Amino acid sequence: MKNSGFIYLIFTILISSNFISCGDETLSSAAPEGNFTYPFKLTASWYYGTMNFLTNIRPDSIKNYFEPDTIEGYGGIIFLGDTVINNDTLRLMRNNHSDPQHIHSAVELYKQNSSGLYRHAYFSEAYTFTPYRHLGQKLKFRFNNKFYHSPNEIIYQLKNDIDFSLDNSDTVIYMDNPPLLALKYPVKKNDEWQLRDNGSFKIIKKYIDYENISNVEKTYYCIKINKYYYFNNSSTPDTNISYADYFSKEGIVKKDVSIRNIEVYNEHAVLIGYIDTNEEDILNIFSP
């Protein structure tokens, strides 16, 4: 992979750094309309909390595999610096996440211009970049005809816009070719665009409407963005996935993803039940 060794070195150095800390400066919550762009300043940082839920576990006989049904984590995101790859200047965003079981990091490369915010690459040191769920059983999970070791892996692929045709793996650089249009400018309600199209699999994003999202300290006026996932050349999105991002002028405020009807298999490859899962990230502090 062209330049992959150089990029890997950059990412390895970055994820070995200490966990970030954020200030608590209060900002205005003006509507992100018109000339809204993502806060792209170096050292801009976001501190967030994560909750992962398992719901609708059926039948009851498999519930003992999934205790507790709710786990929590927390994380921090920061723009660290710029790097030049193929004569293109890209900005490095590091995301550290921690929970009682795991500490893990990821790095993404972004570029922003008048048409939008583009992601050029993604790297993670772990393929379960969510609150880690230790199952203690040799279970497998199937979704969209693909097997996983944990429902966290499915959420990982959704939250990081990874091609579902690829195998999950840690310490792998995913080069986005072409780059992914994470945010389209200007922000206009009901605008939609194609995030990814790999033939049989594609993702469509759409600006839905403006909503107020609150945490314990303030309320953010956000644009809601839905993601729609199309598998196996389907002309309709998968109804088992619900995904929404919420952005304000302060950047990402909330992520909310739900996956329904995940098949559960035991160590003998026998289908024993189904689960639904939901994960929510909420901004606690933004430091410009």
Topology:
Blueprint: H1 4-15, E1 45-58, E2 70-85, E3 88-98, E4 103-113, E5 116-124, E6 140-143, E7 146-148, H2 151-159, E8 172-184, E9 192-197, E10 202-214, E11 219-230, E12 241-248, E13 251-265, E14 271-287
Antiparallel strand pairs: 1-2, 1-14, 2-3, 3-4, 4-5, 5-8, 6-7, 6-13, 9-10, 10-11, 11-12, 12-13, 13-14
What does this structure look like?
This protein is mostly beta strands. The chain has one domain. The protein is 7% helix and 53% strand. The chain is built from two helices and 14 strands; from the N terminus they run αβββββββαβββββββ. Strands 1, 2, 3, 4, 5, 6, 7, 8, 9, 10, 11, 12, 13 and 14 form a 14-stranded antiparallel beta sheet that branches. The chain starts with a helix and ends with a strand. The relative contact order is 0.20. Residues 4-30 have low confidence and may be disordered.
Could you name the key traits of this structure?
about 290 residues; mainly beta; 14-stranded antiparallel beta sheet; about 5% helix; about 55% strand
Write down the secondary-structure element order.
HEEEEEEEHEEEEEEE
Helix content: under 10%
Mean pLDDT across all residues, rounded?
Answer: 84
Q: What is the number of beta strands?
A: 14
Radius of gyration: 19 Å
Gross morphology is globular
- Taken together, the total number of domains comes to 1
Q: What is the terminal separation in angstroms?
A: 35 Å
Sheet-strand content, in percent, reads over 45%
Task: Supply the number of helical segments.
Answer: 2
Largest sheet: 14 strands, antiparallel
Low-confidence stretches: 4-30
SS-derived structural category: mainly beta
